[in-house]
UniProtKB/TrEMBL annotation:
This is Mechanosensitive ion channel MscS domain-containing protein. GO terms for cellular component: plasma membrane. It is found in: Membrane. One of its GO terms (molecular function) is mechanosensitive monoatomic ion channel activity. Belongs to the MscS (TC 1.A.23) family. InterPro entries: LSM_dom_sf, MscS-like_plants/fungi, MscS_beta-dom_sf, MscS_channel_2nd. Its main location: membrane. One of its GO terms (biological process) is detection of mechanical stimulus. It is a multi-pass membrane protein. It comes from Ilex paraguariensis (yerba mate).
Length: 328
């Protein structure tokens, strides 16, 4: 509901701006929002737009990305509600069948139609049915507990199971359909999923990340200090992408000629949208490469000592064409 409300507000603002200004407006500024909203609502609107709080304006691409993300979340919510409703309806039918059988048996007992021999016969048949379908009933019960009590994910959530990232495509009582990164559908029994650890990216808070790199051991300490300062400054400038105060640490030495370093930072988002995560990371890596080139920080191999023990004997008396033979 909040997303639809914000979408309605932005649509009204965009239409009003086109009406008020004769020339087409490329950006929406804080002053434009203040014409329709209170100051706190305008600030909240600017904050929900990725990149708008940094530049203090909303561009057309920013508005488009926000609308697309709102539509995706709304679609995932609708699919979740639809699958949940379907599962509840199936469960309701199963309960109706059990209740109907119970009512029939009680009515037969009350009307004294069912004798002791008949009840004994019915009990024996129930034991046989329980022996045949006992495992199935156990599986259904475990699936119901997993689906309605544990409920570790919804439709559209990015999950990681057995080291594989997948998107929840469909939820049923007995099975869950996942969509892998290559759009291959994978069906897991819910009873099996209840025994596996499931990582849910969508329900996670703002997540961290790490960028590892190597520098030569002979790199001066002042260059490393400047490099840390520039990387930290760039991350703090992009406050819409990452939290402030990242950590640049020296992790270990490798091969006595390289120092392994890492930048530990925290995104202002979880990794549900993996494409956006890698785009932000790519911008940071590109900036780090620029910093390395500015500071002349290069990768160098470890020097090798070459010892020549013997030289091959000359097998020819011919001289190069540029040499002159000495007079004998």
């Amino acid at each position: 509901m909040v997303g639809l409300y914000m979408l309605f507000i932005i649509a009204r603002i965009s239409d009003s701006l086109l009406f008020l200004f004769p020339a087409p407006t490329m950006f929406i500024y804080m002053q434009d929002l203040m014409r329709f909203l209170r100051e706190d609502e305008a600030l909240k609107t600017m904050s929900v737009m990725d990149g708008s709080s940094e530049s203090e304006r909303i561009s057309k691409s920013t508005l488009k990305n926000w609308v697309v993300n709102a539509f995706r979340e709304r679609r995932a919510l609708a699919l979740t509600l639809n699958d949940t409703k379907t599962a509840v309806n199936k469960l309701h039918h199963m309960v109706n069948v059990l209740v109907g059988i119970t009512i029939v048996v009680i009515c037969l007992v009350i009307l004294e139609i069912a004798t002791s021999k008949f009840l004994l016969f019915v009990s024996s048949q129930i034991v046989v049915v329980a022996f045949i379908f006992g495992n199935t009933c156990k599986t259904i019960f475990e699936a119901l507990i997993f689906l309605f009590v544990m409920h570790p994910y919804d439709v559209g959530d990015r999950c990681e199971i057995d080291g594989v990232q997948m998107i929840v495509e469909e939820m049923n009582i007995l099975t869950t359909v996942f969509l892998r990164y290559d759009n291959q559908k994978i069906i897991f029994p819910n009873s099996t999923l209840s025994t596996k650890p499931i990582s849910n990216y969508y329900r996670s808070p703002d997540m961290g990340d790490a960028v590892e790199f190597h520098v030569h051991i002979a790199t001066p300490a002042d260059k490393i200090a400047i490099m840390k300062q520039k990387i930290t400054s760039y991350i703090e400038i992009k406050k819409d992408h990452w939290y402030a105060s990242p950590t640049v640490v020296l992790m270990e030495l490798e091969g006595l000629n390289m120092m392994k370093m890492a930048v530990w930072l925290r995104h202002r988002m979880n990794h549900q949208n993996m494409g956006e995560k890698w785009q932000r990371r790519a911008l940071l890596v590109e900036q780090m490469v620029t910093i390395f080139k500015e500071l002349d920080i290069e990768y160098r191999l470890h020097p090798l000592d070459i010892n020549i023990r013997t030289m091959p004997t000359a097998s020819s008396a011919r001289l190069p064409s540029t040499w002159e033979a000495s007079p004998s």
